[in-house]
Amino acid sequence: MNDESSVTVIRYGHRPGRDDRMTTHVGLTARALGADRVFFPSNATQAQETVEDITTRFGGVFQARCTDELDAYIRDFDDMVVHLTMYGEPIQAEIAAIKSNATDTNLLVIVGGEKVPFSVYEQADWNVAVTNQPHSEVASLAVFLDRLFEGTELSRSWPNAERKVIPQATGKRVIDTDDSV
Ligand code: SAM
User: Fold this and answer.
1) Which residues of the chain have pLDDT under 50?
2) 181 belongs to a structural domain
3) 46 by DSSP, 3-state: which?
């Protein structure tokens, strides 16, 4: 990746009530681990609001959007599409090729919830598994982004934050910053 390229995450599918926390956590994980934006289905407005609120308070430039046009967005996406699925090829075998292709390009990363249609598997340039065991969209997204950014996302800065956590060996310390706009 370089400064010109971006990473967009799509949370494909959302069951209100049952998926509320998981969908929100997909967005928060995308933000915290270096993606530029998340697109949710149109029925996930609560997740969008929570992610926007966290971005306002804790900084960074991150977009959260709901749309009923995820299928069209995936279909029309010109650059590289990675779909995370337990049925895909192992991340440890594919990440080097993904990274070398992603240097000058935008990357779309899709994670599912309920059943993902086969068209997504076909439209993806890579169907990637983080182990071939069933687990979670949040876990697979976290491992994928960390492998993509090689850990550099862990020490990024967060401009325009209203609040900042001061790391502590024990206890919690959060300060108001005057860095906010
Ligand atoms: N059968 C699903 C699948 O295709 O991976 C598992 C459904 S799981 C409840 C929801 C989402 O978690 C999946 O759509 C996928 O994005 C992600 N996921 C779960 N296990 C995964 C794995 N081992 N590797 C990559 N992604 C995984």
Assistant:
1) 179-181
2) no
3) helix
